[in-house]
Amino acid sequence: MDEPTNHLDLPARNWLEEYLTEYPGAVVLVSHDRYFLDATVRRITEVGLRTLTDYHGNYSHYVREHGARMERLREAHRRQQEEIERATAFINRFRYQATKARQVQSRIKMLDKVERIEVPPERKKIRFKFPEAPRPGRVVLEVRGVRRAFGERVVLESVDLMIERGERVGLVGPNGSGKSTLMRLLAGVDRPDRGTRVLGHKVVLDYFAQDQAAILDPGRSVHEEMSSASPTTMVPMIRNILGGFLFSGDEVNKRVSVLSGASATAWRSPRCS
Fold this sequence. Notes:
alpha+beta
């Protein structure tokens, strides 16, 4: 199952979680939902360093064990490097002294046989920030008596909602209940059939949709797509912005079509810096 919870509402996700927990067969699952993994899996297989590493337990267990394993690996790598450096220094110092020839050759053979410990690079983290926005008034956004229908199907009726400065609002409900429709109305992407939408004083609004990847041009490179959405003044900063989203060097020339959905949508907002 590849990202099975991506488009599930809460009841469907909970049902799937319970089903997989009780399922008697074997399941191979790919997910970025750590809470879902914690509840459903008893073995984590990590893909890295061109191989697979098994951890028996749920995701939280994996995080702890992986961290401890990396510490042990880095310590072993440090000790090995010290031994290699000491042997190399001895070889360089006594290479041309006949009395040390046997010892030099012994260390050369030892270095040839050493199986070098490979340490994975530190995992890069996405870094970005939004520029400071003007301080808005107390009311950020308000809708009054909003109605939205699609043909004869009424999705929203007489909706009143006020969002104040500093609030964090989550919309929950089953699929098809109107969450995305309401979001599009709040963002000003769609207009209500009836009612009003009032944007607060000095509010700077942006909207990131769940299907954001659909607006991208798959034939463009990452850099070209960002350039097309950026004001002229930001073009010189595009490489720095993409770097914050882990696109470095020639990776900025990758086509949008080869990116995963998460990568393709994460960097699309030119307001980031």
